[in-house]
Amino acid sequence: RGEIRFENVRFGYDADRPILNGIDLVVAPGSKLAIVGPSGAGKSTIARLLFRFYDVTGGRILVDGQDIAKARQETLRAAIGIVPQDTVLFNDTIGYNIAYGREGASEAEIREAAKGAAIHSFIESLSEGYATRVGERGLKLSGGEKQRVAVARALLKDPPILILDEATSALDSRTEAEIQATLERAEQGRTTIVIAHRLSTIVDADEIVVLDHGRIAERGSHAALLEQG
Ligand code: ADP
Ligand code: ADP
What we know:
This protein is an alpha/beta fold. The protein is about 30% helix and about 25% strand. The relative contact order is 0.20.
């Protein structure tokens, strides 16, 4: 479970301005693909299409052989966890924030996800636990704690696919290293797509693609790409 295939995928937010110009990708179950490239290249757009925030304008995206345009949205989203760069939390409880988008998650699932994100103990130490309100009118969480809530949200329902969209790039280097370690554990046994802008952060990827102006400019292993410079 967790095979991803992009076949000649084309997309533009506006009809007259193409953003992705024919993307072909195959990510084998359990493997890790890294997408690098300059800002504006279309990296996050790839993640948004996979999660069906938008529909492709040409080509198709298959998950486990099924065209996602024909899948039930709920089924697709339960199979994919996304961690964005900046997580904005709702003025509600920590439990609500972890379960956001996954209505019907059980308390046991929420706790498991929080454990996977290494934030369960912190939450348990709060006097109101998972019922603690966060955000402007509640407990202020640090940037790292917010990202851990996002990781827990992504891990809910134990998805076979994980997308990390510059998940740690807004953090200070120490917090980044801590959350990176948590993410490395979370990646085990899942198909992972990591979006990054530096080659140095993705040494363990099975394949790296360099995206430029909505096209794949280079692809290969980390070593091969470093050699080319
Ligand atoms: P990257 O992640 O590589 O920085 P993005 O995928 O975020 O690039 O964006 C690719 C291009 O699409 C950029 O030119 C950006 O301005 C544009 N873009 C992103 N989101 C939207 C949107 N919601 N509406 C219109 N254009 C967008
Ligand atoms: P960005 O464009 O910065 O990546 P989004 O606004 O697309 O952020 O999503 C923010 C967060 O909300 C992400 O963690 C995403 O996984 C989550 N999210 C949004 N909608 C859903 C949904 N329907 N199901 C699960 N998670 C969702």
